Amino acid sequence: MTAPSPPGLLRAPLVVEFPFTRSLGPVQSAFLTGLRERVLLGVKTCDGRVMVPPVEYDPVTAEDIRELVEVAATGTVTTWAWNGRPRPNQPLGTPFAWVLVRLDGADTALLHALDAPGPEAVRTGMRVRVRWAAERTGAITDIACFEPCDGADGGPATPHDGAFADPVTGIVAEARLDYTYSPGRAQTAYINGLSRRKTIGERCPSCHKVYVPPRGACPTCGVATTDQVEVGPAGTVTTYCIVNIKARNLDIEVPYVYAHIALDGADLALHGRIGGIPYDQVRMGLRVEPVWTEGGRYPDHYRPTGEPDADYDAYKELI
Ligand SMILES: [Zn+2]
To answer: What is the pTM of this model?
Structure first.
């Protein structure tokens, strides 16, 4: 949890979200297809240990391992931690324990959730069993969670050929990170400046460098930057690259130029797209100015001002 921001500081939700698509290979394919069929599979390592969840390479020798075995749906908690406030998309909506469970027949432990009324009901060494999800698709969530049980040891692992009809060969794992982001004092001033189409940097009181965007401190001198300085709006291209790969969700025709631009008065270059000039005519030293679009929160791109190019000596320290 984060403390409330002081008055005047910006604060906003920031969500980083992406799907991760992967193929499974023979071992993970058998493991996840097995879950769909309520069969728990592990793999034997070169020294005869049974790993659940299974891996494709021996953790000691790095040799391929393919010898699958079936283990029981009962096991023993080897360690745990109480989760008093479940977050969205966690296995259970009510408080639960994260547990490592060594399934009977396995030598390693599997991470999952344990449905228990409270932390006093959880202990290392307790016996648990799998609660299967009602609908299973070939994913780790096919195990809904574990639940306490009194059952006897499920016995040793038994050989399994890993063959199933309609095996799962790939998965899409959705990754999502929810942040509440506060840019801090310096960047709040910078962002508020952009809303007035002004670029606000901060000067180091020791070395007098002007940082844009400002981070609130000078990384060289280790002191807070306090003096606000308006820079630009025009600047100089210090270096650039030609982008030939079209990014998803970005409506810009390739090729286009992305450049480091040292705004006049700044001692640090920022990034921006260069437009209004053929991509193969962009050069170091080109003088540019920002182009704003209606409602834009920052310059859409920079275009040539028509001034003569800057001398290399004028920007060589900013590359
Ligand atoms: Zn400094």
So the answer is: 0.65
